[in-house]
Amino acid sequence: MIAGINIYEILTLTSILFFIGLYGFFTRENLITVLLSIELILNASALNFVLINTYLYPDLLQGAIFTIFIIALAAAETALAIAIIINLYKLIYSVEVKDTETMKY
């Protein structure tokens, strides 16, 4: 357990981070900021795994294992998304979400 810090304070912080990421995902028009918002959502969920594991089951490592899996998933997602964004920029010279609709036709 973390001395001097209540579990509710950290859960509040991770909830705020999650909802900031959710807000950024739905409101941003730049693909790179949408990608950053997804990363923020994944990091908030990883912090929740570690926090709940630390407070409820301090001797077990399941929360850390899930967090490592989330970090690996986020890295793979970022690499794939940046490759797609670079190729999209080469085709239409823009990284705005509204400009990706031209790719349908």
What's the arrangement of secondary structure elements?
Blueprint: H1 7-27, H2 31-56, H3 62-92
Helix pairs in contact: 1-2, 2-3
Walkthrough of the structure:
By secondary structure, this protein is mainly alpha-helical. It has a single domain (7-99), classed as Helix Hairpins. 74% of the residues lie in helices and 0% in strands. Helix 1 (7-27) runs antiparallel to helix 2 and helix 2 packs antiparallel against helix 3. The radius of gyration is 17 Å and the shape is elongated.
Overall 3D form: elongated
Number of domains: 1
N-to-C order of helices and strands: HHH
Q: Using the 3D structure, state the CATH architecture.
A: Orthogonal Bundle
**What's the helix count?**
3
Class, according to the CATH hierarchy?
Answer: Mainly Alpha
| Contiguous uncertain segments of 5+ residues | none
Ends: how far apart? 55 Å
Radius of gyration: 17 Å
- Summarize model confidence as the mean pLDDT: 88
Give a quick account of the main beta sheet: strands, pairing sense, barrel closure.
none
Helix content: over 70%
| Beta strands, count | 0
Helix-strand makeup class: mainly alpha
Strand content: under 5%
Reported by name, the CATH topology is Helix Hairpins
